[in-house]
Amino acid sequence: xxxxxxxxxxxxxxxxxxxxxxxKSTDKGFVPQMSGIELLQLIPEIANQTRVDVNQLMNxxxxxxxxxxxxxxxxxxxxxxxxxxxxxxITHGTDTMCYTASALSFLLPxxxxxxxxxxxxxxxxxxDSDGPQNMKDAFCVANSKLKGVYIVFNHKIILGSRAYKxxxxxxxxxxxxxxxxxxxxxxxxxxxxxxxxxLNSKNIPNQxxxxxxxxxxxxxxxxxPATKPEFLSFIGKSGYQGIVIEGFGTGGISNLNHGMLDExxxxxxxxxxxxxxxxxxxxxxxxxAVYGVGDQAAKAGVISGNDMTTEIAIVxxxxxxxxxxxxxxxxxxxxxxxxxxxxxxx
Length: 346
What we know:
The longest helix is centred in the first third of the chain and has 16 residues, at 67-82. This protein has helices spanning 36-41, 44-47, 67-82, 97-107, 131-142, 229-236, 260-269, 292-299, 310-321, 327-335; strands at residues 2-3, 12-18, 23-26, 29-32, 52-60, 87-91, 114-118, 148-153, 156-159, 163-165, 174-176, 183-186, 189-192, 218-222, 242-247, 275-279, 303-304. It is globular and about 65 Å long. The strands form four sheets. It has a nine-stranded mixed sheet with strand order 1-5-2-6-7-8-9-12-13, with helices on both faces. By secondary structure, the chain is of the alpha/beta class.
């Protein structure tokens, strides 16, 4: 762990993980190369603060981020919490930032401080980069009274369990999906609109399982009109312990695709593999009771994912499978609102 000069009273911790914000141009394209210290030196008004420490946890493209890296970041956050830091800022690549934010939302219960992920769409070394401003905004939120996991990007404060990357290049990269924006940062002033729910350790199933345990064996299937039952069968036989399906509309799977529902029922009842249904649509979510195609999926044993994002549905299932394999417990827990990742009574 590196310290900024004259830092005698560390308060805010920067966890640097790489990403576009830390990238430099190479003959292979932009590659993360800048350290967290170098990033801060680009922002003198932050670098000159006397209460900032930097932990260079890794320096990778977020496309290379693995489940084990989420756990590594979560452990580093927990260590920082125990060291009495008042806030943690994680510099991170944008492509999988929502996955990491989702994972931290479940791996760090009872948060009393803000954990803020930020990054940029252009490397911080470029004169027109959005990185320095995003970091300034992140520091503003770090000094707020918010608790929980957030993405701060383009002046918006987004709950980590509801963040969704909408654009590949636009500076306004993220939206808050099916949940209000927590707030905004304007001219170094914060406007907080809501205080989200924080994961309470008392609600965690199977307290005997380690805090950072996840089951990475969760597959994602986006169904199309051409999806064959054999594809689902292959997933079920490939060692996966859970499946998230992106269905049509409110949760439809074709009844005319002979064998698909039979295969789903077999995977759930015979292989004890839970299947969660979420929607391919951007807003609102799944309601399996609306149409016959959804009703038949429910009767086959599919569990509604309500209005969860793809990222949070995958992470939540990984988190639950590490704690129980009981189908009824999983079904009940998927519907439970742990950290405002799902809307009650949709």
